[in-house]
Amino acid sequence: MAPRYDTISFLSDYGHDDEFVGVVRSVIRAIAPEVAVVDVTHQVPPHDIRAGALALARSAQYLCPGVVLAVVDPGVGGERRAVAVEVGDGASVLVGPDNGLLAPAVALVGGAGRAVELTDLAFQLEAPGPTFAGRDVFAPVAAHLCAGTRLEALGPEIDPAGLLPAVLPISHIDDEGLLVAEVLWVDRYGNAQLNVDPDEVAAFGDRMGLRIGDDRRTARRARSYGDIAPGEIGLVIDSYGLLSVAVDRHSAAERLGLHAGSGVLIERFSQDQEAPAAGVVTPVQLSSRPSAPDEEVGP
Amino acid sequence: MAPRYDTISFLSDYGHDDEFVGVVRSVIRAIAPEVAVVDVTHQVPPHDIRAGALALARSAQYLCPGVVLAVVDPGVGGERRAVAVEVGDGASVLVGPDNGLLAPAVALVGGAGRAVELTDLAFQLEAPGPTFAGRDVFAPVAAHLCAGTRLEALGPEIDPAGLLPAVLPISHIDDEGLLVAEVLWVDRYGNAQLNVDPDEVAAFGDRMGLRIGDDRRTARRARSYGDIAPGEIGLVIDSYGLLSVAVDRHSAAERLGLHAGSGVLIERFSQDQEAPAAGVVTPVQLSSRPSAPDEEVGP
Amino acid sequence: MAPRYDTISFLSDYGHDDEFVGVVRSVIRAIAPEVAVVDVTHQVPPHDIRAGALALARSAQYLCPGVVLAVVDPGVGGERRAVAVEVGDGASVLVGPDNGLLAPAVALVGGAGRAVELTDLAFQLEAPGPTFAGRDVFAPVAAHLCAGTRLEALGPEIDPAGLLPAVLPISHIDDEGLLVAEVLWVDRYGNAQLNVDPDEVAAFGDRMGLRIGDDRRTARRARSYGDIAPGEIGLVIDSYGLLSVAVDRHSAAERLGLHAGSGVLIERFSQDQEAPAAGVVTPVQLSSRPSAPDEEVGP
């Protein structure tokens, strides 16, 4: 018996303004009516492969075994390959363009097993034009996989080591001892997730400095969003286990001018600097930069 | 046999930009694959408990029996309790934070039966951080309830009378005889639902005055949106049985500067005032306030 | 046995900010719990019948056999009829207002068979007000059709020839030999679909002129979006087989000031005019209009 899957987890940059998601779901249902389609999100910014790859990676460990259909595909109709990639010894298959979108999720769940390029037109729809591969290539392939089609029937096997990797920023300590971090994601509430594991700042104590462009702020480790006082900047371990910049019931991203890709330097305070309690500011800090006194810190 | 439910009606402020809804659905499906999840709405404004409570109340009588999963949860990770509340002798269970979000819906369907605080971690997910209770607490509990887990297994029983009530505005007649009302909700089309039962204005006749801030307008009772003439302000009995301010195929909220929470005074015209037909304006009105002549009314 | 359907494809202008879609789905599920509801799109601009009709037409050939529930209904509660229209010898039934919304899709799938006006209240919900026909009329009718209710039970048969047609623009060649076209749709990526079959410009060669208001541009036929060079304007055969104006990974609509309904004149170049390669501009062009030199073309 060929493997069969009963769930397709579907992520794209199609948005909801147009009928793209509905048409893809209809195509799937026509081929594999018993399959449940779970929408991961379709509001990845148009053509933003990195944002899609990160959303997929954040979701990966929670998705049901089955087929993952992921389409953020600015190169549609061009040279990029369409692929299907097995993970977990075939427990799941990721289907999408070979442009880095799938890579972080594949890595997170243990790396790629077999992979094929989707070239066999028997498992695809005839298309008036080459621009809607989600409908014409990826959706029918995902549905056929659920209905029992074997991976190797979809096209020639390719070396999974040759799949395009994603380029994600890694945090590091610079020559001055600052932790060089980057905003991975700003969520709906305006929390800014950093590429920082809490362990990396475990020795920084409860309060630390944030440098965002020319701004210097003091942030405090907080247990939850509700634990952050009005006016304060909190660093919370978010629901994915990463450090996230947050403020009290408002958008930290808006208040601090952060967006996905923004650089953030995290500074460990010396013993002297660490001393001031929240809201108390040393003279040196005040004199060097008088605005927003309770959040500033001297160099 | 424990009660089992086959539908989860799901409302939140998660939006669709992120993968929150998809992850919650995946968590549910992993625990209770046969359950249908019906999205009520996920576009409640972030952290807006009142808006979420009203949307849930408007929907309540139409939702299928089963579990209602409702998450608008600014206090996540803090002191607020996570609860499950039976209604209708156990025909349905509402699962969510105890912050007033559930209260109007519970009241509408006959009040709370048993209630428990969700403390037993065996029915929850281990979480890297405390900030995504929808995924880690509420969704698994909702799914386990569907799969047959009994309410009392989820945590200690609590007094339903101790659940946080919602504070919703009640319309009333003031000393001057004006009906003091408030906008509960502005819908996608810009119609502004008031907290006014049509009975309250039954004696006001066909035409009445609206005072919105310093503006004074004349509104006419209309059978439907299409019954409102261009330039006219209509008062329609909306699909929930409440009085709603509408204009002809445009947004009444935008035209009149209304939003959820706006105060509106409704004025009963005297016999003399009631006389003018639509579009006809008395000299007194014109002289007292010359703009928008066909909608004005003198004091 | 009465015909039964297992899929409802659902399109509306309800948006996702309110609970309208969720309530309609709940109503359907209460009547016909086994039916799958596929959302085509709910982000048709409010009251925009033409946009809804075009989205439905674009989707039509991909939708599963069954019931199509389509609601863009500015005349709700007024004189417009509520109808159900069979197509494909009863393979599918379209349910919605008789305001032109259904017409293009009906035409595309072979025209209307039987049609009825939805007057029998036994298959509808009692409503507090007449403004939410999706919930109170169309959804219950759609669900009852799935559950086995026969078309003729829903109300009196009407002449399908009397259904309101849609008015869609047809491209044509004007006296000067220009192809007079119109933008049908701007998608999420900013591609502007024209009402032009590629055959209509087959003899125009690889490059042709676009007149948009006072602007004159040169566009090039491109195989895919990725085939369009930076700064270039491409004409791509889109996923529905129509000509679409696109630019390199940006919004063509934004760059060229196009929206649904914009007029576009397409000009065939003479042999001399066709000569210049992309980026090369003739003196005549430069002198007649100096801005954006590599996209201009003289009269």
Can you give keywords for this protein?
homotrimer, 299 residues, alpha+beta, seven-stranded mixed beta sheet, seven-stranded mixed beta barrel, 7 helices, 15 strands
List the helices and strands and how they pair.
The structure is a homotrimer of 299-residue chains.
Chain A: E1 7-12, H1 20-31, E2 36-41, H2 49-60, E3 67-71, E4 82-87, E5 92-97, H3 103-108, E6 112-117, H4 133-146, E7 157-158, E8 172-173, E9 179-186, E10 192-194, E11 207-212, E12 215-222, E13 233-237, E14 243-247, H5 252-256, E15 263-267, H6 271-274, H7 283-288
Parallel strand pairs in A: 1-2, 1-3, 3-5, 12-13
Antiparallel strand pairs in A: 4-5, 4-6, 6-7, 8-9, 9-10, 9-15, 10-14, 11-12, 11-15, 13-14
Helix pairs in contact in A: 1-4
Question: How would a textbook summarize the main sheet of chain A?
Answer: 7 strands, mixed
List low-pLDDT spans of chain A.
Answer: 275-299
Give the H and E element order of chain A: EHEHEEEHEHEEEEEEEEHEHH
- Strand proportion of chain A, as a percent range, falls in 25-35%
Instruction: Specify the structural class of chain A.
Output: alpha+beta
Question: Assembly state here?
Answer: homotrimer
Structure, explained:
3 copies of one chain form a homotrimer. With 299 residues, chain A is of the alpha+beta class. Chain A has 7 helices and 15 strands. Chains in contact: A-B, A-C, B-C. The A-B interface holds A 6-7, 9, 11, 16, 36, 38-43, 55, 58-59, 62-64, 187-189, 223-227, 236-241, 244, 249 and B 13-23, 25-27, 29-30, 33, 46-47, 74-79, 127-132, 135-136.
